[in-house]
Amino acid sequence: MKHIVTSIGTFRTGDLLAEAVGRYALALAHAYDSAVVDVPYLSAGGTLRRAELRVGWLVDIGIVTADGDEEEVVDPDALRILVDCCDELERDRWPQLPPEQSWAYWETVL
Q1: Alpha-carbon distance 39 to 50, whole Å?
Q2: What is the pLDDT of residues 23-64, one digit of tens each?
Q3: Cα–Cα nearest to 10, from 33, 1, 57
Q4: First CA to last CA across the chain, in angstroms?
Q5: Nearest Cα to 39, choosing from 61, 57, 58?
Q6: Which domain of life is it from (predicted)?
Q7: Coil, strand, or helix at residue 83?
Q8: Radius of gyration (C-alpha) of the chain in whole angstroms
């Protein structure tokens, strides 16, 4: 079980979902973009709810491992959508540049 931590609250969800949200947020940030994701989570009372969270460029989120042996939140459809979106972004928006053209290389030669 993991928590997605945002400026509006903390959302307790499954490991795979939290990691997929984090991966998608990073892919969007690299593309200077943001999006809204629909994530199932467990409320403090244990009720399964859904949150729409903005992730990506200029949005702070964190993924934190929860203590205890709580039941995992599993939503195969939401997970598949997140993974597909990540795959598409990483394939289409991250050009493979030669080292001398990458920003990281450029900064090291200054």
Answers
A1: 5
A2: 999 999 888 889 999 999 999 898 999 999 999 999 999 999
A3: 1
A4: 44
A5: 61
A6: Bacteria
A7: helix
A8: 16
